[in-house]
Each structure stands twice: as C-alpha cells, then as structure tokens.
Write a structure and sequence with these properties.
263 residues; alpha/beta; Rossmann fold; 2 domains; five-stranded parallel beta sheet; 12 helices; 55% helix; elongated; IstB_ATP-bd
C-alpha cells in the first residue's frame, strides 16, 4: 500500500512537470477543505483545477502590469466625469473594454493641462490590460530619448520592431516641448504602428498646433493622416481636473475663476 509520503511526492513531481506550482503548494489545504465539506473526488479535482487557473490568471495580470510600466495605476471609478462634463463617459467606458485594439484603432486625448487626459489614458490602458492585452505606457520625451539612443547605436530597426509585442502603446504628453530632429523619429515610430497596433496619445495642443512640435508641415500632415484614419478623439474641455482634486483634498472650496485660470 502506498504511503502518504510517497503519494505526496508523486503529486509534487506531477505538479512540477505540469507547471502547477500553486497547486503543489496549496493542495494540502484544498484536501483538508474537501474532507471537511465531505466533497467527492470530482469536486476535489474541480477545486484543484479552478485554484490553479485562478492563480495563473493572477500571475498573468501581475506580469502585464509590470510590463505596462504605468507611473501609477488609475481606474475610471476614480475619475470624476462631472468635472469634465463634455467627456462622453459611455464612450470612454466602451474604450476601456479594449474592443478598439483588435481593429487597430487609436485614441487621441486633447485638452488643457490638468484636465485628466493621462488619467483616462491610463484607465483605458488598465482596462485593456485586464482584458488580456499587452500594454506599454511611455512619455513622449522618454520615447524620443530611447529612439535617439537606438539610432546612435545603429539598432533603430530592431528597437522599433521590439515594440510590436505591445498591442497598445500609450504616448503621454505630446506637445509640451518642440521635438526637433526627434520628431522625425517619432513619426517613424507612429508610422510603423499604423494599422499594426493601437496607440493612445495625450496632448495639450489641438491638431492645428502640432506643427509647432514637429516643425515640418508636410511631416505633421502625414502624421495626422495616419493617426486620425482610424481613431477616437476625446476632447477634455473643462476646468483643471487635477487642480480641483488637489484643493478638494485639502477640504477647500475651489473658486470657479481660479480654476479656469490655472494652467
């Protein structure tokens, strides 16, 4: 007759071979629960498999979260849409389901500083991540620096190709400073993703002023043509959401004119 120790050894070996580390660790607890509940063999087997599936899903989400490199996780539940009344809440909620990603569509968030563009971009990215998509968040200036370094080291094609693994890339804060020669590299980056992967871009500038950032009217026109071909444009027309949050957290009333004048 097989001893308990031998049986446990066989289970450990099988869990290792099947790559079920969580089940290897927790099956004694699951067995104890099954005995206490007088569960039959099928119920016990089901609980073991369900436990492993759940743990693998949790591990995948943790991996995707680390890979995304969000500065700080944000959710739609945390965003107060009442402060940006013209922002279509239902549309934003639909975008957060990630359905635009298989269609290779883009999302462009445009509005004054502090109106919540980065929050919404991150929240949509978080929703996409929870749906299983590979997401990466990066500021425009950080990406420009990485593109320039890759070009200097003669590995730009390989660097551009490395971004293909992300089904959604979030480019934050386009428009705060002119890009100079970096604008051509960013154009190359966006062109490579055209109809290959989705982008979310946040910008404080309306489209007519993007030429101030890229410095080349022809390049800017070509860029906008690619970006807006399949895109959802979200306009953040309102008082500074971030400023309201800051003062609101201090328990102060926010004078309307004070908020309107905040940059």
């Amino acid at each position: 007759m097989m001893t308990t120790a031998l049986m446990e050894a066989r289970i450990d070996i099988a869990c290792g071979q099947l790559r079920m580390p969580s089940l290897m660790k927790h099956y004694p607890e699951l067995l104890r629960d099954a005995l206490e509940q007088n569960a039959d063999h099928l119920q016990f087997l089901a609980s073991c498999l369900e436990h492993e599936v759940l743990k693998k899903q949790e591990q995948k989400q943790l991996h995707l979260l680390r890979q995304a490199k969000f500065p700080k996780p944000k959710t739609l539940q945390e965003f107060q849409f009442a402060h940006i009344p013209k922002l279509p809440k239902m549309k934003v909620e639909q975008l957060a389901q990630g359905n635009f990603i298989p269609r290779r569509e883009n999302v462009i968030c445009i509005g004054r500083p502090g109106t919540g563009k980065s929050h919404i971009a991150t929240a949509i990215g978080m929703g996409a991540m929870l749906a299983g998509y590979r997401v990466r968040f990066v500021s425009v200036m950080q990406l420009i620096q990485e593109l320039q370094l890759a070009e200097t080291e003669y590995r730009l094609p390989r660097f551009l190709k490395s971004w293909n693994k992300y089904e959604l890339v979030i480019l934050d804060e386009l428009g705060y400073v002119p890009l100079g020669e970096g604008g051509k590299l960013l154009f190359q980056f966006i062109s490579q993703r055209y109809e290959q992967g989705s982008l979310i871009i946040t910008s404080n500038l309306e489209f007519s002023r993007w030429v101030d950032v890229f410095g080349d009217p022809a390049l800017t026109t070509a860029l906008l043509d690619r970006l807006t071909h399949h895109s959802h444009i979200l306009l953040f027309d309102g008082d500074s959401y971030r400023f309201r949050q800051t003062l609101g957290g201090r328990g102060k009333e926010v004078p309307h004119e004070q908020v309107r004048n905040e940059g």
